[in-house]
Amino acid sequence: xxxxxxxxxxxxxxxxxxxxxxxxxxxxxxxxxxxxxxxxxxxxxxxxxxxxxxxxxxxxxxxxxxxxxxxxxxxxxxxxxxxxxxxxxxxxxxxxxxxxxxxxxxxxxxxxxxxxxxxxxxxxxxxxxxxxxxxxxxxxxxxxxxxxxxxxxxxxxxxxxxxxxxxxxxxxxxxxxxxxxxxxxxxxxxxxxxxxxxxxxxxxxxxxxxxxxxxxxxxxxxxxxxxxxxxxxxxxxxxxxxxxxxxxxxxxxxxxxxxxxxxxxxxxxxxxxxxxxxxxxxxxxxxxxxxxxxxxxxxxxxxxxxxxxxxxxxxxxxxxxxxxxxxxxxxxxxxxxxxxxxxxxxxxxxxxxxxxxxxxxxxxxxxxxxxxxxxxxxxxxxxxxxxxxxxxxxxxxxxxxxxxxxxxxxxxxxxxxxxxxxxxxxxxxxxxxxxxxxxxxxxxxxxxxxxxxxxxxxxxxxxxxxxxxxxxxxxxxxxxxxxxxxxxxxxxxxxxxxxxxxxxxxxxxxxxxxxxxxxxxxx
Length: 523
Description:
Order of helices and strands: HHHHHHEHEHEHEHHHEEHHEHEHHH
Largest sheet: 4 strands, parallel
Number of strands: 8
Radius of gyration: 30 Å
Structural class: alpha/beta
Helix content: 55-70%
Number of domains: 4
């Protein structure tokens, strides 16, 4: 307390001196000025030393997390250690030990950790490119851990029926997941700050100064990415020009020197590989394996933004390697079995809603209760889709707006709530049970719209390579479509889904759909 008291007394003396103004002689003023300078120098030196210490700590972690594998490894290590510690301590405090041997304890923890890691992996919990400081990620994280808890309980209690020595404790399991949820979210948010700091001083080097690079720059400006872009081109005619008009970055030269610079967080190839010389391609290959990651435009879009740029799609696009969707894909048949089981179960569980909703629709706007419309399915097959009616009944008009817009007057008061909670989609479960659609896939488009899009949007017909679904990648990542431009944007997400058709992606869509329903993001 003495140093603090001395500082206060000293400050008061300085103020008193200033108040005295001209009454102080020059010798006194000089003495006090020297004391002030000495104090400020001592104070600034202490602050500088502490700042250097903190800077070194932050610098170390920022450098460590600049490696692409680092954040995922730390997340995984913390998940394993945190879960084992929480589960062990909760069991000890509650005096519950439902495992007879250490082997049982090992197997139970292995099952739980496997389910937790899988659930968090599906939502991007180990992906350094996924923003973990947003409310959206927090909601998905909560849903993933809850889902992991339910699956773990189901597996453990199923195992207990075959081994009578196991006596599962619901309290231990529930409390362990309840503690793990906020803790695992907290250290992800904490680590994310260091991941962001590791990228703060680094930029992306974009090779190319033509039309492809300009389109990429416009897309990047509207993205959440904060790393700056530097454009470089081997073509001297493009050097010195702005990439996309006034105010945009200037295309630079000296490509060889920039490729040797380790400060770039990634290299983006915004030119066709056929236009580059062999020496440059060899340098890019070495950089990919020894220095920093090299992206094509397609891989950058897919990794960071999770959609496919239409500029790279051509008639041979479905014939490329890397597609998860195939004619003999085992997941295709597993998904159909899941559709049958899940839609049948959902129809039974939602039976009370099929009784409660129709009276509200009838009281609000009369009959009919259901809305039926021709839609386009896989391979262009037509079928009749059924939903709860949410709009006023009116005769078809040739010039009627085909899009449902925000605050659309055609939507009934009851329909507005049904759309917000996505309850108007429930009758589609019958379409999923019959096989017209899947639970997950691109939106089943109205045949009138599909015919129009196929004439105006290149490669729109590729989205018919898979069954449409009640919910899909475009539906959970892009707002409700209100124009032909929105149809183009949503097609980018649909094509990404087709290329990465898998259990992981479907699980991500389920969690995002639950988030949309629980937080009323529908329209």
